[in-house]
Each structure stands twice: as C-alpha cells, then as structure tokens.
C-alpha cells in the first residue's frame, strides 16, 4: 500500500505562504509516497493553481453534510472538489471539541464527501483523561463504529489516529501505545487496505521512529506541515520507512 503524508494547515496560512507549498512540490517532484496538503478553504483554489503539474494533492479540513443550501459560513463537499480538492479531513478532534461534532455528525459528512467523490480522512482519538482511565480502545472503537458509514473502503477512506493530548503539545505516545491502537484499527477497520495515519506532534525528529511502527501508513501533520523544509524531512522519512 502506498504511504501518505498529509499536512493539515488548520487555521493558518495566507496567500504569501503558497511559496511553502511550491517549495515542497519542487523538492518532492515524484515522491514514492502520496503527499497531501490541506490548507484553509480560503487558499484551496489558489493552491490548486500553484500545484498544477505537481504530485501534491489537496484536501479540505471539513465539509457540511448537506449537498447545498442555507448554511451560512459552511462549505459543501462539491465546493471543495470545485476548488481542487480530492480529500477532506473529517471529525478532527478540534472540530469535535470546538463545534460539538458527534460521530454521527461525522458519519453524515463522510457520506457527503463520498457522494462528491472525495476521499474522507476520518480522525479518531482519545483524551488524556480517557487514556488515564484505561478507556483508549473503547473510545477509539466507538468513534470508529460511529464515524464510518457502511461502504468505507481503501478507495474512499483514510483513518487518522490522533490522541487529543498529543496534538500541538510536543508530546507523543510511546511506540507501544501507537502500535496498540494501530493494530486495533487494522483489525477493526471495515477494509484492511484502509490507510492508517498517526497524527499528533509529528516532527522531523520523531517521524522515522513513528513510521517504523507496524500498521502506520503515514502521518497527519499539523504544525510541522507549515514549513516546507520540515514537512519535506517528514516525507523523506516516510519514503525511507
Ligand atoms: O491534523 C493534525 C494534527 O492535529 C496534529 O497536529 P500537530 O502536528 O500540530 O500536533
């Protein structure tokens, strides 16, 4: 299975930062791994223009469950496609927390993404309190069952394991903890070919060790994806894994 390095710019980036995407594409002209950038929606169309002729694919960071309509401020999956996206991140813990998204909400968005032809990157992860209480696999199992509708396959879905306590904190789980959750996901995902990404404080210094773990098929990278040099090193580590 081809590995995937996905960068989530979150609510960061202006037109001036398109140079980072262009530098990344120039440094990885024909990567042996899939490279995906998910800029804020405001930059998607411009980044798509800048990435023409490169191997870098683009994704959105959320979409609405409805095809269109009176939903001020929201973005439909087909609009992401129209702007140049092939993927969309759904159910990120920041959206589950900031916008109260339940797994049922995420599943509805996944269906909308598939209907528009997008690959859904579905995020799952436990809080620190849940891990301390020994609930990690129960939480991940419930999110997996609730967030993935019938029909999830390697072609239309990627799963990202992102422990909430590891996001943007500089803290990462132990190799054993990552391997345990990824083994659980491999066993319980509806299609064994679905790519499993790890996300949470991945950086050039820890990427190789994370990518060496079984059932880790790539990464969903936040902060370190904003700089082409850093994200490039992570891609290189994935190529070498
Ligand atoms: O979507 C990306 C993740 O939330 C990881 O973010 P981070 O690499 O800044 O910890």
TrEMBL record:
Top EC category: isomerase
SUPFAM superfamilies on file: Triosephosphate isomerase (TIM) (SSF51351)
Binding residues annotated for substrate, in chain numbering: 8-10, 168, 201, 222-223
Reaction(s) the record says it catalyses: L-erythrulose 1-phosphate = D-erythrulose 4-phosphate; D-glyceraldehyde 3-phosphate = dihydroxyacetone phosphate
E.C. numbers: 5.3.1.1
Highest taxon of the lineage: Bacteria
Any one annotated GO CC term: cytosol
Annotated protein name in UniProt: Triosephosphate isomerase
The encoding gene: tpiA
